[in-house]
Every structure is written in structure tokens, then in C-alpha cells.
Amino acid sequence: MVTTAAGLRIDFRAMYGNIGVLVDGEHGVENVGEVMAWFADWERRFSRFLPRSELCQLNADPAETVAVSPLLFEVLSTALYAAHVTDGLVTPTVLDALERAGYAHSYELLAAVTKANPRRAPVPAQDHRSIRLSPAQRTVTRPPGLRLDLSGTVKGWAADRTAARLAGHGAVLIDADGDIAVTGPRADGSAWPITIACPRQGDEALGVLPLRSGGIATCAPARRRWQQGDSVQHHIIDPRSGAPAANDVRSATVVAPSASEAEAAAKAVVLLGSVDGIAWLERQPAYAGLIVRHDGELVRSSRLAAFAPADSFAPLP
């Protein structure tokens, strides 16, 4: 934790990633531990790697219809909304495909357990429309054997929820392992400078995108890679094939009204490829984005100019 004249900064680990909380205001946060406890609770509830989590219990329940907690219902609703907006490209039904690709353990353990495992043939994910939520009964109904993964959705959701909870303390930025939510401009009226990492060069910056409110997220398949047998796999699964995405997109960054929307949109762009991805972004009036192709070229959506000048990001060498 770092306290400054401008407010408060907290950095910690949760949800198998790095969490950053910045509050730029006069009031600060009375109980820093409470913020960390929120993320710890959400990890215990929604992790697919903790057998006692509510998500794992749902996945293991043989009943077709299961009552769930208000929080799990909310996250499931967020995940299915993302699936609807992206025409099923970003879906919580990819858990079987993730495990077939070798992602059956937390990322820290993959290097030790997957290299010797032979590659398994991919299987397309089940249609998200086979899942039904009942708000009145707070139940989820899904086909027998269908298991869910919420690891992408829950970080953007957690960033949005934390930002909303802390908004009364001043301007807030929440970074949930790269899914960022911002409640408004900083105390001096300026935008938050969001550094966009270069997908080729480690910690170097591709550029800076000023953000005054809403959400921003970057999806980069190379961020989580592992060896499975004689092939390299990554975590961005194309539900149409059940295999990791393979096209010309190295990374995609999207600005949206919320972190959860930005996360889903960035993943959809990666899955679509640069041509179809930028066309899809242009059809979404609330989104703007930047694509980095494998050849180093940058592709910008027309609405990105509202956030950063065209020369803010240079092509990669």
C-alpha cells in the first residue's frame, strides 16, 4: 500500500493476478483490508481451481437446475450478456475446451504439469443459449454435464463493482489484472493516463491512452502460454473450434462503458481477427479499439480518435 497526497494506492495479489486500486480524493479509504477482503471472497467463490468454490460446486452438481447466490447469479448474468453481445464468441461454456488445451491448473502450475501431456483434439464449446437464468428463483438451468468458466468475466466484473463501491471516496481507478474501471476524472480534472503495454517487448509501453470514465481492457494471447506435448497453447479459446485462436491479431485493446464490456469486446476482437474484428468494433457505437497485428501494424477503430490522437501509437519495429 502506498499513500500519497493525492489519495491512496493499494497493490496486492488476488484472482491469480495483480490488483491495483487508486483513489484520487480527499477522503481516502477507511479500511484498506476490506478492499482486499472483497477480492479474496470473490476468488473463493468463483475460482475454477478451488474445489470448494461455489462455481466448482455448481459445475459438479448433477441437477439440471441449481439455485445460486446473488453474487454468482450476477456474474453469470454478466457472462451471458457478453456472450449475447459477441454472438457467442465470448462464452462461459469453454471450460472443457480450456482443459483439453491443457489449462486444467492455475497458470503458475502449468509449466510443471502440461509439457509432458499429449495434445488432445479440440471440441467446439456448447452454445451459451442452452443456459437459462431465472431471476425470480435465482436459478441457473443448463444441459447435463455443461460446466462453466468465469475467469475472464469475473475480473472485469470485480473492477466495476469495486469502482462503484469506492466512488464516494473520490475519483477511482481499479485495475483487476489488466481489466480497468474508472469512475471519473482525477481530482484536478485530468484524465487517467492508461499505459498500453507493447505485446512484443515485455514491459515497454506501446503508448498512453487517457481515460476519464468507463473501462478499458487488453486481450493478448501471448500473456498466458504453455507447452502441451509438442505444441504451444494459449488461453483465448475459439468456441467455434474449441482450439486456441489462431489469426493475425497479437493483442486488442478496447475502451467501453465498463471494464466487463471492455474485457469481452477485446477478447471478441482477438477471436475475430483484425479485419472482422475492426468491422465488429465499428458496429458497436459505445466501443473504441486498437489492434496490434503479428506483423507489427496497428489497426484503429474510428472512435479511438475521441480518446487519443492518431499518432499516439506507432507501428512496432
From N to C, what is the helix and strand string? EEEHHEHHHEEHEEEEEEEEEEHHEE
The beta-strand count equals 18
* Largest sheet properties: 9 strands, antiparallel
Helix content: 25-40%
Q: How far apart, in Å, are the first and last alpha carbons?
A: 37 Å
CATH class annotation: Alpha Beta
Assign an overall shape. Answer: globular
Query: How many domains would you count in the coordinates?
Result: 1
What is the CATH topology classification name?
T-fold
What's the CATH architecture? Roll
What oligomeric state is this? single chain
Instruction: Give me the secondary-structure category.
Output: alpha+beta
Residue ranges: pLDDT <50 for 5 or more in a row?
A: 1-5
Present the secondary structure layout.
Blueprint: E1 2-4, E2 7-14, E3 17-24, H1 32-46, H2 54-60, E4 65-67, H3 70-85, H4 95-100, H5 107-113, E5 132-134, E6 139-141, H6 151-166, E7 171-176, E8 179-182, E9 192-197, E10 205-211, E11 214-219, E12 225-228, E13 231-234, E14 237-238, E15 243-244, E16 249-256, H7 259-272, H8 274-282, E17 288-293, E18 298-300
Antiparallel strand pairs: 1-2, 2-3, 3-7, 4-6, 5-6, 7-8, 8-11, 9-10, 11-16, 12-13, 14-15, 16-17, 17-18
Helix pairs in contact: 1-6, 6-7, 7-8
What does this structure look like?
With 317 residues, the protein is an alpha+beta fold. It has a single domain, classed as Roll (T-fold). Helices cover 28% and strands 27% of the residues. The chain is built from eight helices and 18 strands. The protein has helices spanning 32-46, 54-60, 70-85, 95-100, 107-113, 151-166, 259-272, 274-282, and strands at residues 2-4, 7-14, 17-24, 65-67, 132-134, 139-141, 171-176, 179-182, 192-197, 205-211, 214-219, 225-228, 231-234, 237-238, 243-244, 249-256, 288-293, 298-300. The strands form five sheets. It has a nine-stranded antiparallel β-sheet. Helix 1 (32-46) runs antiparallel to helix 6 (151-166), helix 6 packs antiparallel against helix 7 (259-272) and helix 7 (259-272) packs antiparallel against helix 8 (274-282). It is globular and about 55 Å long. The two termini are 37 Å apart.
